[in-house]
Amino acid sequence: MKTALITGTNRGIGLEFVRQYAQDGWRVLACTRDPSTSRELNQLKSQYPDAIHVHALDVVNHEQIAHLSHELAKEKIDLLINNAGVYPTIRGASFHQIDYEAWAYAFEVNTMAPLKMADAFYSQLSRGELKKIVTITSKMGSVADNRGGGSYVYRSSKSAVNIVMKSLAIDLESKGFIVALVHPGWVRTDMGGPNGLISAEKSVSGMRHVINELIHTDTGKFFAFDGQIIPW
Question: pTM (2 decimals)?
Answer without folding.
Answer: 0.95
